[in-house]
Write a structure and sequence with these properties.
- The chain contains one helix and four strands, in the order E-E-E-H-E.
- The protein is mainly beta.
- The mean pLDDT is 96.
- The structure holds zinc ion.
- Residues 21, 25, 27, 58, 60-61 line the site of zinc ion.
Length: 68
């Protein structure tokens, strides 16, 4: 399992989403909420939706969960 976080800052991507990142991401933000450990990024994105409406996966660390 990997640990995931959601970025508190939505100004860092063109669609103003709160992006979910996996541990080891090269562009990991500093201002973020820990989501916990998950087997897949879909579960982490679902958890992030408890905090923010506009959520997307980081294209760098979880491209399989990046939609826009
Ligand atoms: Zn990332």
């Amino acid at each position: 399992m990997d640990e995931y976080w959601v970025n508190n800052n939505a100004d860092t991507n063109p669609h103003n989403d709160h992006e979910v990142h996996k541990e080891g991401c090269p562009v990991m933000p500093n201002d973020k909420i820990p989501l916990g450990f998950y087997n897949d990024c879909e579960s982490a994105v679902q958890k992030a939706r408890e905090y923010y409406l506009r959520v997307d996966g980081c294209i760098r660390c979880i491209p399989e969960c990046h939609t826009s």
